[in-house]
Amino acid sequence: MVNTIKSECLEKYILGRSFQIPREDGITENYDLFIFCCGWESRCTEVINYDKGDFQFNSAAIISFNLGDVLGYNREYMDLLVSFSTRKTTKLIFLNHEPTDLDAIIYDIDKMIADLVKDLERPINIGMDITCCPRFVFLHLLGYCLRNNAAKEISFFYSEGIYETSPKEYVHTKGNWKIIEIPGLEARDLKLNKKLFVVSAGWEGNRYRSIVAKYEPDHLGILLPDPGFNSDYVYKSREECKPLIEDYNLGNDAIVSAPAGDAIAAWKVLKAPSLNMIDHHIAYLTFGPKPHSLAMGIRGFLYDAISVIYRIPEEYIKIEVKPNGVLWRYDIKNLLFI
Asked: What dotted CATH number matches 168-316?
């Protein structure tokens, strides 16, 4: 069965489509490279449960992290991903780093992609599960592949989740945040003086409120995850944004919404005129759901005036997120290769 397109967006030469994959249909694509990310959350293995025999890849990589002497992943989940990958291919790469060792992460991702492009002598097709992958990693990979014409199509997968803790008690990071531009998704027009910040809303509102206050943008916009995975998650995101809305006296035109799990729908609403002021340096703050971060990465790549921003915390807190049975696929196609 052909999956039904949920959303579609074409901007310049990049075409995006989103799908929800029925478990009974499964994943039927064949990729040159499939990238998994192993973490603490049980949903990091959900994508392999959609194999009906036709989910294939010629090479695989598993990304994981260490937090000092502590594993940043569950060994059981790693064993499952290794077992699945080695049934499909003999070419398995392990990328393991400290989450703050950004230079090493960038080097290994770039080298992995460049080596495969060189070996195959053509742009490649990539599948990547971003469910438990840090935003920095998949956004950099996106920027590298698009900027270097390394991939003709990338399919990102994302499993919606049920959080072990209630939204009111949710805390995922400790310490100060380090704010960086994603390498490969930096603004290239540096002559603009006015600033417009667009915040992808998540659950740590006090954090991004202090960041916005520090940099004093001239204008502010907000991307809300609505509808969310459930009504409590939507309510939490809206409550976290209230102080920012009041600080900047934001009207309805400065606040846009897209489903929390639909990266392509989020990409489309980022085109709103209030979020695209002429002669402004636009900063996308990727603090909300990963699908919305992906949307910001795609659109940020296409425009010289846009920076895609991420935060690196001093420390992560272990949480459990179980799959809720909804798996998304976002196909990003570079039409220059057609």
From this structure: 3.40.50
Same fold, 5-164+321-337 and 168-316: yes
pLDDT digits (tens, 9 = 90+) for 23-76: 999 999 999 999 999 999 999 999 999 999 999 999 999 999 998 788 889 999
The amino acid at 217: P
Beta strands across the sheet bearing 280-286: 173-181, 306-316, 280-286, 194-200, 219-225, 255-258
Q: 8 phi and psi, to 5 degrees?
A: -145, 140
d(CA 245, CA 205): 11
Q: Give CA–CA dist 129/146, Å, rounded.
A: 18
Q: Domain boundaries in the chain?
A: 5-164+321-337, 168-316
Structure tokens belonging to residue 176? 């100060």
Gap between the terminal Cα atoms of the chain: 25
Q: Which of 94, 164, 150, 159 is nearest to 120 (CA)?
A: 150
Closest CA to 292 of 319, 318, 316, 310: 310
Omega within 30 of 0 (cis) for the link into 291: no
Report the distance separating Cα 228 and Cα 233, nearest Å: 6
| Distance (Å, whole) CA 329 – CA 157 | 5
Which CATH number applies to 5-164+321-337: 2.30.40.10, 2.40.50.140, 3.40.50.11700, 3.30.70.670?
3.40.50.11700
Q: How confident is the model at residue 1 (pLDDT cuts 50, 70, 90)?
A: very low
Dig out the tokens for 96 from the structure.
């393991």
Task: Give the residue from 102, 281, 284, 286 showing the smallest Cα distance to 188.
Answer: 281
What is the pTM assigned to this prediction? 0.95
For tokens 């940043």, what's the residue? 72
Positions of E strands within the chain: 5-11, 14-20, 30-37, 56-67, 70-71, 92-97, 124-129, 151-163, 173-181, 194-200, 219-225, 255-258, 280-286, 306-316, 321-334
